[in-house]
Amino acid sequence: MTDILIGIPARFASTRFPGKPLADLAGKPMLAHVIERAKKANIGDVFVATDNERIADVAHTYGADVFMSKLEHQSGSERLAEAVQHMNCDIVINLQGDEPLINPLAIQAVVKPFQDHPNLEMATLAHPLLRDEDLHDPNVVKVVCNAQGNAMYFSRSAIPYPRKEENCTPLQHVGLYAYTKDFLLHYSTLQDCPSGKSEQLEQLRVLHHGYNIAVTSGDFHCLGIDTPEDLERARELI
After folding, report:
1. Which one of 14, 114, 122, 192 is most buried, counting C-beta atoms within 10 A?
2. DSSP letter at 188?
3. 124: which residues sit within 8 A by CB, 6+ positions away?
């Protein structure tokens, strides 16, 4: 049987939105919504990896285990890698702390490719872009996949660029990852790459070093909270 852990990396010092996991959303911290949805997926234990005591207190209050991580991590994946070193699991899900509206079915879907591809290292999700304006919004990450359903590139820019009108629906990346524990630990040793630094997208480091990321596309749309304006949209939706 495959043992799965759902890890939620959450830091206070977000560049665009400091204190984001603690922001009020419908009467409780945003992180609380993420924890609740992770538990509804019912596929593994849930823990929060953070460097902030206030975030840790919220995690405990809403029933998640807590790992206090170092301050200097450059990505959520690195934070989770530190946390799982001595945990027993086969697969680690990285559910980012700014996805309070994530569908629990999406959390279940991100691990399904491992059933069909035992040698797979990493998987993620995407959905067709819903709004035309999102194609050129740098806060909306896009992905292009190959014929095998693996990611070729992720970008904050418009990809594929619509130079010629074709029947091509751009895919929006969903900030949800799953990795084998072994690969997550290996990922944290990989050197960052110029494209990842430029785009500020941690998953580009994986592609740069020649590893595959399986992308499952479906009805996985959710509103990630990158800015205070996104939080207002989330409040309206809830």
Report:
1. 122
2. T
3. 110, 143, 151, 173, 174, 176, 177, 178, 203, 213, 214, 215, 216
- CATH 3.90.550.10 residue window(s) in the chain: 1-103
pLDDT at 1: 43
pLDDT at position 17, please? 65
Number of CB atoms found within 10 A of residue 16's CB: 11
CB 82 within 8 A of CB 70: yes
Distance between CA atoms of residues 231 and 48, nearest Å: 21
Contact 68, 92 (CB under 8 A): no
Residues 6+ apart with CB under 8 A from 187: 77, 78, 81, 122, 179, 205, 206
- CATH class assigned to 1-103: alpha beta
Give CA–CA dist 173/144, Å, rounded. 9
Q: Residues near 229 by Cβ (< 8 Å), separated by ≥ 6?
A: none
pLDDT-flagged residues of the chain (< 70): 1, 13-17, 226
* Assigned token pair, 110: 């991100």
- Cβ atoms within 10 Å of 235's Cβ, excluding its own: 12
Q: CB–CB of 5/45 below 8 Å?
A: yes
Give 62-108 as a DSSP string.
TT-EEEE--S--SSHHHHHHHHHTTS--SEEEEE-TT-TT--HHHHH
Q: Tell me how far apart the alpha carbons of residues 95 and 34 are, in angstroms, rounded to a whole number.
A: 8
